[in-house]
From TrEMBL:
SUPFAM superfamilies: Nucleic acid-binding proteins. This is Small ribosomal subunit protein uS17. Pfam families: Ribosomal_S17. One of its GO terms (cellular component) is cytosolic small ribosomal subunit. It comes from Humidesulfovibrio mexicanus. HAMAP family: Ribosomal_uS17_B.
Length: 88
């Protein structure tokens, strides 16, 4: 059999942890730039995602990368991939 490589189609997002109060759960705020349709000016939009943090490593203010994952609860559909930068 020929060996094949399988690339993942999962989305990855980078954002800042705004809450770590839940057990093994973090809330990540992700900012994106969107161009206004009429004024052609870029606007910063923010959205919050709940992500699974299995070891409770993250703290508020950390910059993290999260990846799509199977649903783990009603609102938690992301998984912590890596901590990019720890907060001071």
């Amino acid at each position: 059999m020929a060996e094949t490589t399988h690339e993942s189609n999962r989305r990855t997002l980078t954002g800042v942890v705004v809450s770590d109060k839940g057990d093994k759960t973090i809330v990540v705020s992700v900012a994106t730039l969107v161009k206004h349709p009429l004024f052609k000016k870029y606007i910063r939009r923010r959205k919050k995602f709940m992500a699974h943090d299995p070891n409770n490593d993250c703290g508020i203010g950390d910059t993290v990368t999260i990846v799509e994952h199977r649903p783990m609860s009603a609102r938690k559909r992301w998984h912590l991939s890596k901590i990019v930068e720890k907060a001071v």
